[in-house]
Amino acid sequence: MLDAKTLLSKIVTDPQALYVEVGHLIASMPDLTVSGELPASTRHWLGRAYALVKETGELTDTYSLDHHIKNLETPQWRRATVGPILDILYRALAVAEMKAPAATQGAFIPAGNVLQAMTAIGKILELARRDVLIVDPYMDVTTITDFAVLAPEGVQIRLLADAKDYKPTLKPAVERWVDQYGGNRPLSARLSAARSLHDRLIAVDGAQVWVLTQSLNGFAVRSPATIIRTDAETAGLKIAAYAVLWNAATPL
After folding, report:
1. What distance in Å separates the CA atoms of residue 247 and residue 168, rounded to the nearest whole number?
2. Are residues 36 and 87 in the same domain?
């Protein structure tokens, strides 16, 4: 894990890192309306918020955020301060997204924006030419009805779920898919040993990997979610690790 100084240095030179970090910041926003003294964890979050907004280069918002953070020290002003702080952070996210590489844009999905989630994941699946591996411990019918259908025809779709945590709706959905599409849209599902899956991810053609912060059955429904493309080295490690898990898994 990068220390704070190394991370900030990376953010300054990497528009993608800045975009992802602002998205993470919004997704992890604490309750700013608590009574009494602000917890140390909240103060840490506010410090990160100030630093990241400053890195976007928006000076007016930086000054404004500093003002609102100071207002949080007065308990009766806290509730009225949350809205302006969120407005600033979403503007920072928009600025950071515009500066980020096109492949990274859209990685942060606000809560309740299910259509945007489908679109973002659909863009990933459309890249596949041979094979897609979707890993989700809590997989259910949604993976098939909302997402697998977005992969190109002829691409092998592999679904890997947790033997303990997958949902009962998955198996009949897989069976109906196979009955309907057969070899035109090949799909297979396996169950890994209980609690052996620690990621939710999509791997494309054994070369590119995207990590999801939530399961597909509730992706961005109640809270913000992110889709992060890993670097080539991390992708290689994950693809190798999940190849082992896939080979050891039991067919659904």
Report:
1. 22
2. yes
Count CA atoms closer than 13 A to 131's CA, side-chain side: 12
Q: Model pTM?
A: 0.70
Alpha helix positions (H), the chain: 4-13, 15-27, 40-55, 59-71, 78-99, 114-125, 141-142, 170-181, 232-248
pLDDT at residue 109 in the model = 78
Q: What is the CATH number of the domain that holds 184?
A: 3.30.870.10
Looking at the structure, do residues 152 and 229 belong to the same domain, yes or no?
Answer: yes
Query: Domains in the chain: how many in total?
Result: 2
Computed on alpha carbons and rounded to an integer, the radius of gyration of the chain in Å comes to: 21
| Residue of 135, 185, 142 lying closest to 159 (CA atoms) | 135
* Residue corresponding to tokens 């459309």: 126
Tens-digit pLDDT profile for residues 94-146? 898 888 766 555 577 777 778 888 888 998 999 999 999 999 999 999 999 99
Same domain flag for 46 and 135:
no
Expressed as residue numbers, the domain containing 118 is 108-251
